[in-house]
Amino acid sequence: MQAMHIGLNSASSSSCSSDPSQVWLADSSATNQMTADLGNLSLASPYPINETIHTANGEGLTVSHIGHFTITSSLSPIKLNFVLCVPQLTQNLLSIHRFCLDNNYWLIFDAFYFWIQDKATGKIICRGLRSNRLYLIHSFSPLNSQQPYPA
Considering the domain boundaries, does residue 131 fall inside one? Predict the structure, then answer.
């Protein structure tokens, strides 16, 4: 498996909550959602095989557990299935591919913003600004009409 290993100190402006333990870095190369915090997982169980995640710098990190994470919003729950617990990670990683497989949402990016849009209703579930060339997705919450939004 491949993953990006990165430390972040800045927060993005997002219409989502700002609890730092629930910030997920959108990663187009990650094969699974990953977190260092076992407390993020429900139905967690020890990972059944000895598997290593390979980071961008070649470092190998061990997977300890696997579980699920459900984020509630006012519109519908957002499922993160098969989330790997990798205690050495410094940032939660959200696999864009896995996210789209597990949910009936589009994850849309442009040069400055991202949107999460429900495919069935067309409603925007979450949006935010790019920060330091990264798209940081905070725990999802209802949209706040006071947040900046592209025209």
Answer: yes
Is the pLDDT at 140 greater than 70? The verdict is no
Q: Domain range spanning residue 58?
A: 20-137
Instruction: Quote the CA–CA distance of 81 and 45 in Å, as a whole number.
Output: 13
Global pTM reads: 0.75
Number of domains in the chain: 1
**Is 11 part of any domain?**
no
Q: How far is CA 25 from the centre of its chain?
A: 5
Query: b/e string for 83-99 if b means 16 or more Cβ within 10 A?
Result: bbbbeebebbbbbbebb
25 close to 134: Cβ distance less than 8 angstroms: yes
Q: Cα–Cα distance between 85 and 93 in angstroms, integer?
A: 10
- d(Cα 23, Cα 48) in Å, to the nearest integer? 27
pLDDT, tens digit, 9 for 90 and up, residues 19-69: 555 788 999 989 999 999 998 898 899 999 888 888 888 889 999 999 998
110, part of any domain? yes
Other beta carbons within 10 Å of 67: 20
CATH number, domain of 32, equals 2.40.70.10
Q: Look at 74-83, 90-99, 130-139 and tell me which has the smallest mean pLDDT.
A: 74-83
